[in-house]
Amino acid sequence: MSTTAEKPASPNSGPPTSGVRTGTAHAPSANAGRKRKKSGRVRRLSRRDKIVLGIMVGLPTLIQLLFVWLPTLASIALSFTRWNGLDVTDIKSAGTENYEFISQNYPPFWPAMQHNVLWLAFLALIATPLGLLLAVLLDQKIRGSKIYQSIFFTPVMLSLALIGIIWQLFYNRDSGLLNFLLGTAGTPQAVDWFGDSNVNIWAAMIAATWRHAGYVMILYLAGLKGVDPALREAASIDGANAVQTFFRVVFPAMRPVNIVIVVITIIESLRAFDIVYVINRGTNGLELLSALVIQNLIGEGQVIGVGSALAVVLLVISLVPIVFYLIRTFGKEKEA
Predict the structure, then answer these.
(1) H or E stretch at 243
(2) Does pLDDT of 20 surpass 50?
(3) For residue 197, how many other CB atoms are within 10 A of its CB?
(4) How far apart are CA 233 and CA 239, in angstroms?
(5) Cα–Cα distance, 93 to 167 (Å, whole number)
(6) Tell me: the pLDDT tens digits for 90-136?
(7) Quick count: other Cβ atoms within 10 Å of Cβ 271?
(8) Are the beta carbons of 192 and 198 closer than 8 angstroms?
(9) Domain extents for the chain?
(10) d(CA 39, CA 241)
């Protein structure tokens, strides 16, 4: 029998807490709940925010409508009309006569189409591989790489009109650098590089290559920097040499860059205008679709309907690579 008496509980002591967890010890306070509600609430845009957002969205949209979409729609509409470009009341419907005229009775049209195709082939087979070669060489971390990049990229910052003027000094028949190097400057044997219709298209494409190669070089340099070095190491371990590693591993890994460059090359071949217009206004062997558009829309003897029809043809051809690029881009996003 135990003789130890139990101590009575102190009146000031609380209820026993051993093994018992109170319900109020860890309960969130009312203020914490309010704060959590406030942090999760979406703040409404103020009047100032709406004005700023409207300007940021509306101004570029307005500029795009005024200078791109409205002229485009106007050109499409005018391509089905006859108009001298002076009096709006003289606009008359012509149906498809303008398209029939340029395809059947307009002598410069088909040579211009051929020159645009030739321009595309030259940029794709000469200028683009040259830009790729420059990018690969400059990616080898050679001394002075940044200087070389600046030198090759400098033509990209110049307009094609200015490039045409620069190359006129190089190709000049009597005092040009090229004929001087060939030893024919000032002689009857000197070649008129921009005046001879048999060679001027090639001279103009070389001048355009000078600019296009630098642009392609920068794009491929960015693509090469994004290739995982582990891919090259794995190819080296498998016994692949530098050429095999590039064409079988590195080049396929730059597929997004390749698609962009293909689209850019096609568009550049179609929008070539400045250089041939500076040389001889796109005549005498330098006919291009873009030059024909300007010849018919501006100057004496302007034919607005024919010029608009040529512009629409150029627009439709240009949309093909753009639509292809958009389909490939958004198709990949859906697959992801």
Answers:
(1) helix 242-245
(2) no
(3) 14
(4) 10
(5) 44
(6) 888 888 999 999 999 999 999 999 999 999 999 999 999 999 999 99
(7) 15
(8) no
(9) 111-294
(10) 58
281-291 mean pLDDT: 90
pTM listed for this prediction:
0.77
Tokens for 244?
Answer: 């095999």
pLDDT of residue 139: 87
Average pLDDT over every residue of 250-254: 90
Q: Classify burial at 228, counting beta carbons within 10 Å of its beta carbon; exposed 0-12, middle 13-18, buried 19 or more.
A: exposed
Q: Is residue 286 within 8 Å of residue 200, measured between CB atoms? A: yes
pLDDT of residue 308: 92
- CA atoms of 298 and 316, how far apart (whole Å): 22
* Helical (H) or strand (E) element with 290: helix 289-297
Amino acid of residue 172: N
Give the integer Cα–Cα distance in Å for 113 and 135: 31
Give the span between the Cα atoms of 306 and 71, in whole angstroms. 15
- How many angstroms separate the CA atoms of 135 and 158, rounded? 20
**Tokens 């001889």 correspond to what residue?**
280
Q: Which residues pair with 81 in a beta bridge?
A: 93
Domain 111-294 superfamily per CATH = MetI-like (1.10.3720.10)
Residue 19 has pLDDT above 50, yes or no: no
Here the tokens at position 127 are 């200028």
When pLDDT is cut at 50, 70 and 90, the band that residue 66 belongs to is: very high
**Residues 235-249 as b or e (16 or more Cβ within 10 Å = b):** beeeebeeeebbeeb
Contact (Cβ atoms closer than 8 angstroms) between residue 200 and residue 194:
yes
1 vs 307, higher pLDDT:
307
Q: How far apart are CA 56 and CA 58, in angstroms?
A: 6
